[in-house]
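[audit] Reproducing an earlier prediction to check determinism. Same input, same settings, fresh worker. If the tokens differ from the archived copy the diff job will pick it up downstream; this log only records the rerun itself.
[audit] input (55 residues):
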Amino acid sequence: MGIILLVLLLALILGGLGFAIHVLWWIALVVLVIWLLGFALRVGEGASRGRWYRW
């Protein structure tokens, strides 16, 4: 009985981890698109005026 509960708990943890990683991939994709849009919108402007981040 204990081993069945351990396997179910392990499946629950790995399933939740997979869902969390899937959500993190979508968030990373959105951040990448916003970052690339920042470069695209900056084209044609002055180098000092168009910078919207402090790198």
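[audit] rerun output stored. Observation attached for the diff report: The chain has a mean pLDDT of 79.
[audit] end
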